[in-house]
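go over this chain:
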Amino acid sequence: MNDVLRTDFQKSVAEYWNTNQQDPVNLRLGEVDGLYHHHYGIGDYDPSVLEGPEDTRQECITEELHRLETAQADVLLDHLGAVTAADRLLDAGSGRGGTSFMANQRFGCQVDGVSISEYQVGFANRQAEERGVADRVRFHFRNMLDTGFETASRRGVWTNETTMYVDLFELFGEFSRVLEHGGRYVCITGCYNDLTGGRSKAVSRIDEHYTCNIHPRSEYFKAMAANRLVPMQVVDLTAQTIPYWELRAKSALATGIEDPFLTAYKEGSFHYLLIAADRV
């Protein structure tokens, strides 16, 4: 464990996810169809879910929230470029494995996920067994800053709302190492707006809630430039993620963090960004 968790901060992050095993949001949404995500959603929601019979309304809202988070993962995979069944992918900060299973189903390729949460790794590997894909989708208790995978062994790497837990220069250095020449890295993340001059009060609330350290938008591009990663597409998803938070705020799964997210997005102090970059 000492080789994986190298700092007190990493230990605190791992403890958060290891002890947060019964988090209702991720579990209830994942139970809809067995795909367990650890990220948010994009796209407009169907307003009719708020108008259904009271005894089934919350179930309909939960299903709609899950549809939006799965749509977000689909958008990430859309930006991985040409991937074949012979390729190998890396899900860095893989949570309970949802996006990894979607990637394997779409491309037929081998996917490795890494997480510093032993609980998440165990959960995801059990899912792989139940899905019958344990020979193609594997999850490892490893640090995404030092994955241990072979140099130039990956066609694609992605992070889905996990970069706020690490130093970006160190992270992108590792991704540059494991990616083959011409390989693709895709990032979806929340980042604070440099023009605001620092973290807003709402962004600071998000940091505190998730035990993370949200980076400024500019830091992503500086760290990529320093590590031979050239942005090919940059998509601001902020407007597309607001409906998810508006719906979640009206659901029984609301945790109280919805208002800071909505405030930060709407005031412009926080951006929801997709970056697709090629290894040169």
About this structure: The first strand starts at residue 88 and ends at 92. The mean pLDDT is 95. The chain has ten helices and seven strands. Strands lie at 88-92, 110-115, 137-141, 154-160, 179-192, 229-236, 270-279.
